[in-house]
Every structure is written in structure tokens, then in C-alpha cells.
Amino acid sequence: MKKLLFAAGLLFTAGLAVAQDTESKAALETAKGFVRQGDYPNAILILNRALQKDAGNFDLQKDLAFAYYLQRDYAHAMGVAKPLAEREEADVQSFQILGLVYKALEERKDCEKMYRAGLKKYPASGVLYSEYGEMLWSKKDFKEAIKQWEKGIEMDPNHSGNYYNAAKYYYFTQDKVWSIVYGEIFVNLESYSKRTPEIKTILLDSYKKLFIDANINKGQDLKNDFVRLFLETIQPQSAYIASNGVTPESLSAIRTKFIVDWFSKNATGHPYRLFEYQQQLLKSGMFEAYNQWIFGAAANLNAYENWTKLHTEEAGQFNNFQRNRVFKLPATGQYYQTAAK
Predict the structure, then answer these.
(1) Which secondary structure element, helix H or strand E, spans residue 291, and what is its range?
(2) Is the pTM of this model over 0.85?
(3) pLDDT digits (tens, 9 = 90+) for 165-202
(4) 283 and 232 in contact (C-beta within 8 Å)?
(5) DSSP secondary structure code for residue 311 in this structure
(6) Residue 47 contacts by C-beta under 8 Å, 6 or more apart in sequence?
(7) How many angstroms separate the CA atoms of 293 and 289, rounded?
(8) 212 sits in which H/E element
(9) DSSP states of 11-62 as a string?
(10) Distance of CA 307 to CAs 23, 248, 254, 296, Å?
């Protein structure tokens, strides 16, 4: 009889746990809906009520901290977020949320300490490297910022944020290679975000910067084999630029020749997913449309719109392909930047 009562008690407890879990998930979804609407007070109300029944629920607490942050109630956000990041089960999002709160309060010393702790626990988290670098950039520690973004690219090559930040950093230096390479990877990883047009403009200007001096090797890191080979492969095209300027059309011709030459000389020793993707587009007849997609609007929006009208089939084929493909870099073996580390 006692055994039956004990078993019934276990079943009852399990049933309560399932019901509690169901209620908590429903509360999370309801709160997320309010957050999407910008109704942060209602989100906070829902989450606090749910936590009265399920006080230890990690996801409820995490969303509550974020809702407080969005409402700019940083004191309450800190009160929830800091203990979460110190828990054994703290995930990457926990550190992200606490980082947002620290940044809002301009507590940079504690913020830096927190990012280091987060990266010690999650050394392959691209988003933590990206946000840590942004924090360092905000305090004008530019050299340390680029080190974090480079480490993020090396450890988590499919996180777009590090390419975005690194491309902008290199654009404002003497570099002529990495702003191009990282910028183009970014627009393929994050093809239709608010940040994409900005990087497309940087890409176009980076090619102008590349060819503005007849000696494109000037000031470049020629000790880096990838950089040296990139410049050697594109150098023969500089004469063409001198007479035609840097336009979507001239870049399409130059980059076509670059890919042909790269794969005849350098691809075996330096495999690179970006160049493989360009070769794929070239073979499938979509490379011109791809170059127009990157450089067209940045160079001249009206001219780009006219090009799409005159090349409806090509533009449509590429757009369909672009929106349905996943650009993914290999996890290892294709990281060639070493100067900034």
C-alpha cells in the first residue's frame, strides 16, 4: 500500500512539473509577443507572474532581464542578469544580456571582466568576440578590438558580426585586402540586413582604394602569403582600371579574371570558400548579376535599376538562387589573417 502511495506521489509530482513547464513556455511566448510589440511593461508583468510559480526557470529569468533592459530599467535588469551569468548553466545569451546592461550603465571595467569570463566558458562564441570587440572599440582600444574580431572569425567563421566590424576597421587603415575579403564574406552571410548596404559601399570604395596607387603592394603585409598572392593575382588588372575606372562592369571583368587565375595557381595551397562561391557563380552564368548586386546600387542606384530592367532574366535567376542558398564557411582550415593577432 505504501509503495502504491509513493508511486502515486511521484506521478502527481511529475504531472505538476509538466503542467508547470507548459505554463512557463506559454508565458515565454506571450511575453515575447509583447516585446515584439514594444510593450515591455506587459512582458515584465507576464514573466514576473510566471516566476512566482516557477521561480528557478532560467529562460523566464533571462527574458525578464532582457525586457527590463529594453525598458531601460537597468537597475532591475542588472539585478536579474548578473546572477544568471554567474550560474553554472549560464549560456551565451546570459553573457550577452549582461553585457548590454553593463554597456548601458557604462561600467566598462566590469563589462570587460564579464566578457572574458564568458569567452573562457565559450571560447568558440563568435557573438561574444564581436560584442567584446565593440565594447573595446567604444573606449578607443582599437588594437584590442580588432584582435577580438579576428579571434571571432577564426573560432566561429560563420558569425557575421565579426566580419562586419573587421571590414570597417580595415577600411580605415592602410589595408587593401581584408576590407575587401571580409566585407564580401559579410554580405554573403548577412545579405539583406540594414547593415548590408553600408558594407556594399565600403566594398566599392575598398576596390577604389586598392587601385588608386599604381603600386598596389605599397604598405601591405606581403609576409602574409594569402595577402601577397591576392595582390599578385589582381595586379595585372590595374591597367584596365586606369582607363575604365572602378565600376560594377569593370569590377565584374577584373574579378572574373582574378578567379580564373586564382584557381589556376593558388587554390590548392590556399582554399577559400568565398572564392569557391565566386567560381560557382561564374560557371553557372550568374557572376555578372552577383557583381551588380554587390556594387550596382552602391555605385549608382538608377544605373543599377536600369541594368536589372535590361537583364530581367539574369537578375531574377540570381535573386532566386541568392535567397534560397546558405553561404557557409568551413569551421577550420581557411583562416589566413595573422597580422592583427
Answers:
(1) helix 287-299
(2) yes
(3) 999 999 999 999 999 999 999 999 999 999 999 999 99
(4) no
(5) T
(6) 27, 28, 31, 60, 63, 64, 67
(7) 6
(8) none
(9) HHHHHHHHHHHHHHHHHHHHHHHHHHTT-HHHHHHHHHHHHHHSTT-HHHHH
(10) 54, 11, 19, 9
